[in-house]
Amino acid sequence: MCAFGVLILTGAGLVTGQTAGLAVLISYMTGYSFGVVFFVINLPFYALAWFRLGAGFTLKTFASVLLISGVSLVIGDLVTVVPANPAVAAVLFGMIAGAGLLAIFRHRSSLGGVGIVAYDLQERLGWRAGWVQLGFDLVLFAVALLVLPANLVLWSLLGAAVLNAIIGINHRGDRYIAT
């Protein structure tokens, strides 16, 4: 779901937040594929995950990042997405990727990077992961204004808001069975 969401997002020339957004911006600027850039950007965050959240979380996060990176490398050859409107693309991205990320979080995993930090802060301090991620996203969108037209950045912000609202409203530790 998350890789499909990124396909919709990049098909409209939009960006998202967190490490995925950084990977999208780098891929736009360099021509490197999102999947490769996303995988490499996440490498430094595994040490934090290992020490703060444990081996199980880290290994599941590594697998999640590896899967989205791999699927992102091939999904464009399997599915063609031509968004007619950036607002629609932004909302669809937010809904699809938000639901995918929510499922990943509910299985005590993340898509790396800021997701690891947000998950850790939710577990330790009770801060909602979606709202933490939205704060990080605002910084990335400020940088995106240097690379993309302002209207695309604004539509991108809508997509990130939808994604993070889904996580912020639905990802609550009291809803899960402790393992």
UniProtKB/TrEMBL annotation:
Instruction: Tell me where the transmembrane regions lie.
Output: 27-49, 61-81, 87-105, 125-146, 152-169
Does Transmembrane show up as a keyword for this record?
A: yes
The family database entries (Pfam families) matched by this protein are listed as: YitT_membrane
List localization entries: Cell membrane
- Record keywords, A-Z: Cell membrane, Membrane, Transmembrane, Transmembrane helix
What this protein is called in its record is YitT family protein
Q: Does the keyword Magnesium apply?
A: no
The record gives the membrane topology as: Multi-pass membrane protein
Example of a GO cellular component annotation carried by this entry = plasma membrane
Question: Entry's InterPro entries?
Answer: UPF0750_membrane, YitT
Top-level division of the source organism's lineage: Bacteria
